Amino acid sequence: SEKMKTYPLNSLSIIEAQQKQFKLVDIITKNMSGSEFLDLGDLGVRKGINRPLKTEKIEKTIAEFFDAEDCMLTRGAGTQAIRWGLLAAIKPGEKILIHDAPIYPTTEVNIKSMNLETVKYNFNDLSGISEVLKDEEVNFCLLQHTRQKPDDSYNLDEVIKEIKKTRQDMIILTDDNYAVMKVEKIGTELGGELSAFSTFKLLGPAGIGCLVGKKEYVDKARKMNYSGGGQVQGYEAMEVLRGLVYAPVSLAIQAQENEKLVEKLSNREKYPYIKDVFLANAQSKVLLVEFKENIAERLIEISETLGTLPNPVGAESKYEIPPLFYKVSGTFLKSDPTLKDRMIRINPNRSGSETIIKILEEAYQKVSEELTKG
């Protein structure tokens, strides 16, 4: 059968990731005194800003890091950050341009709840984009930075440039989940109006999202998010900031181990039971291993007893340290449902390639023994 071709995003090298870390720390030193940094932060709706002072300061720091005008931390993770972006920049019932692909489930809820009319276009081929942009009722575009389906290959930078060439007025919101701190630039750094992502995926606290970009929209979202219970408290904002400092290098190491795994596991003589191995941005950039036999589900069960995580948490949260051995994503199965029985995805998380290969080999031995007995 034909080898699956995927186009994962370019990961930062460890040196480039260090530069991101150093840049953020440099900005922190410019925005806070040392004692302020050692303060966990205040609580509640401060007069005049309607949120904790520490949260405001950290939002300014994050905005500066992404060369954006403004930033707002949100409760409800990346999903809510996307929701605030939509609510601030578009009215219910309007048309929005999206990629022609299965849409992320919680994003779909946002679109349906605002009764938005979706105009689908395949961004993998930009030759017909100007035609679609002639529709003056389409003033908003939602772009997902990472891959929505296995054969996605579009370059976010090119897509944004092409859209802006024809329609300077188009409001572009990028869903930068699984791309932030892993790639060189996010949507707002490439000319988009807004970027939304979850800080839980960046070693931050559970459930805190981030919206960065143009002040007029972030301000609007902030006014809508008026209630005290909707504010991110000072100590949580500090957790977000600390997570952001450690995320890039940590994620670059993960990307490096992924590359090593592809190289090592491609050795057919050493691992004859593996049919194919490659990297893909199935949301997060993961290793996909296809076996010759239908052993995926049993192998995942056995691996868990050998220390692998049986399920994601925030997907790459600070709680996910051992490697994850898991079923392939729904979007991949749409392209070939039979993969469910013979393919697994592996996310190294904080582990090294040796640990993953050791567990894979041991789990395979046990599955084989069961099959021979069976």
What does this structure look like?
With 374 residues, the chain is α/β, with parallel strands linked by helices. It has 13 helices and 11 strands. The strands form 2 sheets. A 7-stranded mixed β-sheet has the order 1-7-6-5-4-2-3, with helices on both faces. The chain has a 4-stranded antiparallel β-sheet with strand order 8-9-11-10.
Q: How would you summarize the topology of this molecule?
A:
Elements: H1 14-31, H2 34-37, H3 53-65, E1 70-75, H4 77-89, E2 95-99, H5 105-113, E3 117-121, H6 129-132, E4 138-144, H7 156-166, E5 171-175, E6 194-198, E7 208-213, H8 215-224, H9 234-265, E8 274-282, E9 284-291, H10 296-305, E10 324-327, H11 330-335, H12 339-342, E11 343-347, H13 353-373
Helix pairs in contact: 1-3, 1-9, 3-9, 4-5, 4-8, 10-13
Offer a quick outline of the entry:
By secondary structure, the chain is of the alpha/beta class. The chain has helices at 14-31, 34-37, 53-65, 77-89, 105-113, 129-132, 156-166, 215-224, 234-265, 296-305, 330-335, 339-342, 353-373; strands at residues 70-75, 95-99, 117-121, 138-144, 171-175, 194-198, 208-213, 274-282, 284-291, 324-327, 343-347.
